[in-house]
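Case study.
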Amino acid sequence: MKVTDLSIPESVKEIIIRSGIVDLYPPQEEAIKAGALEGRNLVLASPTASGKTLIAEFCALKHILEKNGKTVYLTPLRALANEKFEDFKKYASIRKSDGKRVRIGISTGDFDSSDPWLERDDIIITTNEKADSLLRHRAKWMDEISLIVADEVHLLNEAERGPTLEVVLARLMQINPDIQILALSATINNVEEIAEWLKADYVTTEWRPILLKEGVLLHDEIQFRDGDARKIEKKTKNTTINLALSTIKSGGQALIFASTRKNAVTLANRVAGEVEEVLFKSVKRALDQEAERILAAGERTRISESLAELVKRGAAFHHAGLGGGHRKLIEDSFRQGKIKVLTATPTLAFGVNLPARTVIIQDYRRYEPGYGYYPISVLEYKQMAGRAGRPKYDKVGEAVLIAKTADESDYLMESYVLAHPERIWSRLAVERILRSHVLSTIAADFAHTEQGIYDFFGRTFYAHQYDVSAIKSIIAKILKYLYDEEMIDVAAENIFATKFGKRVSELYVDPVSAVIIRDALRRKPAYLTDLSLLHMIAHTPDMGPVLRPYARELDEVSVFMEEHRIEFLVDVPDEWEDRITYEQFLGEIKTAMTLKAWIEEMTEDEIIERFRAQPGDLYRTIENAKWLLHATHELATLFENKQVLPQTLELRERVEKGVKKELLPIVKLEGVGRARGRIIYNAGYKTIEDIKTAPIEDLVNLPLIGPRVAKKIKEQVGGFVKKETWEKLEKEEAWKQKALTEY
Ligand SMILES: Nc1ncnc2c1ncn2[C@@H]1O[C@H](COP(=O)(O)OP(=O)(O)OP(=O)(O)O)[C@@H](O)[C@H]1O
Ligand SMILES: [Mg+2]
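After joint prediction, the assembly is written out as follows.
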């Protein structure tokens, strides 16, 4: 079947053909035959790289151009949302029947907003979590959605994210019963079950356009699934690195999956030294520029500096602790073939198209705090493996697991390479997870009676697989909790959300966190300090795992706790009565101490050393603190707790930037983070007005501030830079760069 044969608008065909696609792949043909273009619901389950997105593109444009419809494209990851956004941009030149051009939008950020501007977009790419939060705000434009694409729908199986996805799909089906659903999935064992749930047909195939050779590497030999074997050169003691080097030698690029952020960073550092030696001069020059770009994007931190150093040497790491700007730069420069080896956490495991000739899976185990190590699922392995051998980039791909012993090698071959992906199961029936979905069902008007709530949950994948009666008792318990805490109220048959309940649902926090915050704000302690609030948010379940004190730190943290006892908004548990709660409490104190150090401008390096925290944990803590302080501010507004409002607002900003109060005005400038802000401030430019009148040469001469940053700062404050001055500065900088590269 050819693109020209399809019943889609000519303008769309032209663009697809121009992008180099003329013939459909077999799975695509089957999807068309199954009625994808006739508005039929469809689950398309086919291997990685088999072109599932294109079917979504056809359907989306058909809806927009022929049915006056609107499409939402759901992805599980931000990296994937960005990639799909780029993919869809090619259609932005097409005009609709009203003469306006097709508009593509992306929305992955702020969870407390209804993003009304999305109303104008025809295709909206978003993450499952963002879609959930938009539904809680009852964004008006959501009623107009006519097509929903659920990419990587097999993630229904994931403990944290799966329930969000199934609730989102159930809600969208409820709002618009005529909606077309297109679910894209890896090959899994129970596709028909998902299809039944979605009232869809399904297509399954085993076809892949590019040969993917899967195997296991032990010492210096890869054993492939098809019986082939290949030796690799033993250049270093590290097998993973040797394989990556052999890939580069053959002209390819390698993507290595590590189990933790820390491992990803360590490995990138190890591999960089070796990669550097085999780089061409021209590539090195391009990489130097990339490194500059990384340093210029956002604040200069230890992470951005180490990333820039690595990039210069042809390697990089990618994980959720990186800022969005940095992640995109890394993804792009790997795509352009500049970075040769990329190490990543599963942030890149799903759906993305990257030029990885070899995917290396360094560790088949994952660590979960409080649970220990467990082996990853076959499904996740297949997804990671599937990043290799993508049509645009390579003729064949290799996915290799690393074994340390012969036994392990056998185990990996059996349990992953030759194994079939498992069935997927709904993970909805967990009280902690259901709690906020039950509240939002009521708060966002998806149900008004107890029966209505059961009806709604009766539409989930969980109810399809088990039976809604299996979670009725959990839901009943949650309803009682929400009623007791005044988030919902009852009038005769009707259940409705109170103002409090509504706001909690929109704020996207666990109702338990909201209760902790509300009760704490009511207490009005004698000394309400920053520490009071930082500890209070550390006490909520939304903070995630607290930073627990090490044995040697215990005394210090307990002494600190005693000294600050009157500041806490939560009762200190008795050490002898409940040891577990007490230790958790000390962890909350340490978390608060860490956040305090952060807003007192202790450097990241110092914090990591002083509190022995992982950089990833530090970033996660900061991210969550920011969000919880926003929630605190909003709840204080709701309860008219006026005296804490300025404090929560200021604290939120300080946590976001990691600065003392005095720096707040100047770190509002783009490109000025805590480090540059401190330098500018200490040089005597304490206000925006000071910066406005400062000669640009003086700013350029400050450490960490080159001409580019100085110009960006000046432009924002509305200061004037003379053309001659700027040209002179640029020339000087060019000389400096030239001298550096020649050296
Ligand atoms: N008919 C076609 N001819 C040539 N190339 C195609 C065709 N269809 C899709 N492609 C290309 O194949 C690549 C992989 O497609 P896509 O990302 O949609 O795969 P996928 O099935 O979604 O894989 P994954 O399960 O990994 O997400 C893309 O670069 C796409 O442009
Ligand atoms: Mg895909």
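Observations recorded in class. The first helix runs from residue 10 to 18. The chain has a mean pLDDT of 92. We will return to this complex in the next lecture.
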